[in-house]
Amino acid sequence: MGNGSSDHHSLFPCLPSFQALHIVILGLDSAGKTTVLYRLRFNEFVNTVPTKGFNTEKIKVSVKGSRQTVSFHFWDVGGQEKLRPLWRSYTRCADGIVFVVDSVDTDRIEEAKTELHKITRLAENQGVPVLVVANKQDLRNSLSLSDTESLLALGELSSATPWHLQPACAIIGEGLQEGLQKLHAMIMKRRKTQRQQKKKRCCNKSGNYKV
Q1: Are strands 130-135 and 69-77 parallel, antiparallel or unpaired?
Q2: What residue spans carry the region label Disordered (predicted)?
Q3: Is 27 annotated as a binding residue?
Q4: Domains of the chain from N-terminus onward
Q5: Which of 30, 60, 67, 187 is least enclosed by beta carbons within 10 angstroms?
Q6: Residue 120 known to bind ligand
Q7: Annotation-wise, does 161 bind a ligand?
Q8: Which pLDDT tens digit goes with each residue over 103-158?
């Protein structure tokens, strides 16, 4: 627990994951990213400090409708403006992205929108599923889901980018498990599509050599 240091994990975060799904948690500073991470890890609220580098945890989550558990390797990366250029290093091998938004901080929603669209438009992130967590929904003055979707312009994300908007309260954990279920489903759907496309390409290539 705590901020990670700059080592080979930060340069190649996909290396130690192996069979675990590589998930990167992003968002502006103070959106609640680390609170999300440790609520998932310990199932309780943990006081956090601003992340100056990254936090990483492996967490097993039960899959709805089966006895299967899925191992998620989460990378929670600092959201301060000076750290955002580093996000790309962490998303390079990502199976999915969790983007946490402060539903109360309406003054920075445009900034959050800019960063979300910037990271999803990167060539290496095309098609990577995105779970947008509308955090702090327990507060009276939080944005509604429809307003959040509109202000973040989620409908304008690339057609290749599957996404789901999940209302949540990280402090008590409400909505987080449901969000991960949705993210897992999107990741599995993408993998199935990729397998089918690969199989089709192999068949087409094989057919070219037929006499």
Answers
A1: unpaired
A2: 191-211
A3: yes
A4: 8-207 (3.40.50.300)
A5: 67
A6: no
A7: no
A8: 999 999 999 999 999 999 999 999 999 999 999 999 999 999 999 999 999 999 99
